[in-house]
Amino acid sequence: MDYCPWCGRRQYWRFDSEYEGECPHCHGGANDLMDHCPWCGRDATGQDLLQPALRRVRALLRKVRVPDWGFRILVRPGISGVDPRYPKIVEIERRLIEKRDQVSWPGMTGLIIHELGHSFLYHHWRFAKSRRFRRAFGDVDKAYRGVDESWVSFRKRNLSHTPVNHVTAYASKHPLEDFAETFRFYVIRRGRLKDLLAEIGRKGKGVIVYEKFLTLHDYLQELRQRAREKR
User: Fold this and answer.
1) Which end of the chain is less enclosed by CB atoms within 10 A, N or C?
2) φ, ψ for residue 10 (rounded to 5)?
3) CA distance 168 to 177
4) Rounded (5°) CA angle 103-81-145
5) Are strands 89-93 and 29-30 parallel, antiparallel or unpaired?
6) Long-range CB contacts (< 8 A, 24+ apart) of 223-231?
7) Which residues partner with 89 through β-bridges?
């Protein structure tokens, strides 16, 4: 509530430090696992502000049959990303929602899938440390080159021509970004390896790019097989 229901005075939030985040509607304190804001009663996650993109994301994940790992998407202040300590929490920058004229729904869909790629990998960290992952993507313990302020177009469905050994220029920044971008294209292109291989050939990409997609594809198959065996 913005105003007290008893005296009518405007209310201010003095308990921000006691909460993990902010409600994207009223900016009152809210915890990550709250479905409803304790102050305004609206969606504390902010997912109601992302519905067109989230519907598309969920449909694509079902199409590709990515096993559910219990991720939770939140609209929060600050930059979009995933904290490795809390791999299931995916934060989307609130400013992008407030400036909807600058970000299209296809672009928002791509951003969410990219961040889900980070969440997926952090959740399956043993895979990230495996020999086959290092062979395809590199060592995840490698230091970042530094803060990159370059704009990334997450709405693109086609691989870039350069660099030769990565799906996009942004993917070349670090093995973690390489996987997240590969995950994004794999999901958006619905896991169709034959189509991806054809485009890799047309764009003159290195064989390693196809190996990245194949490594992800094989691992998803393994996860589905494990899930079936547990039933």
Assistant:
1) C
2) -70, 140
3) 10
4) 100
5) unpaired
6) 223/67, 223/124, 224/65, 224/67, 227/67
7) 72
Buried residues in 158-178 as b, exposed as e (16+ CB within 10 A): ebbeeeeebbbebbbbbbbbb
Encoded tokens for 74: 């939140």
Q: Is the distance from CB of 35 to CB of 45 less than 8 angstroms?
A: yes
- The 10s digit of each residue's pLDDT in 12-66 is 656 556 889 999 999 988 999 999 999 999 999 999 999 999 999 999 999 999 9
Q: What amino acid is encoded at 186 in this protein?
A: Y
pTM: 0.90
CA distance 29 to 10: 16
DSSP of 47-68: GGGSHHHHHHHHHHHHHHTPPP
Angle at 146 between CA 144 and CA 149, to 5 degrees: 120
Could you give the C-alpha distances from 100 to 5, 43, 52, 96, 135, in angstroms and in order? 32, 19, 12, 6, 39
Instruction: Please state, rounded to an integer, the average pLDDT across all residues of the chain.
Output: 92
* 210 and 196 Cβ atoms separated by less than 8 Å: yes
- Could you tell me the two tokens for 58? 């969920």
pLDDT grade, residue 5 (50/70/90)? confident
Task: Give yes or no for a contact between 186 and 64, defined as CB atoms under 8 angstroms apart.
Answer: yes
Strands 21-22 and 89-93: unpaired
Q: Which of 57, 64, 184 is nearest to 118 (CA)?
A: 184
Residue 7: exposure state from Cβ atoms within 10 A (0-12, 13-18, ≥19) = exposed
